[in-house]
Amino acid sequence: MKRTPSPDAHPLLPPHGGYRRLKSFQVAQLVYDLTVRFCDRFIPSRSRTHDQMVQAARSGVQNIAEGSMASATSSKMEMKLTNVARASLEELRRDYEDFLRQRRLPLWDPYDPRLARLIALRPTTANDVAEWAKAIKHTRPTHTDPSIPSILSISYAEIVANGALALIAVASSLLGRQLKAQARAFERRGGFSERLYRTRAAARLSREATS
Question: Which residue intervals of 122-155 are DSSP H helices?
Answer without folding.
Answer: 126-137
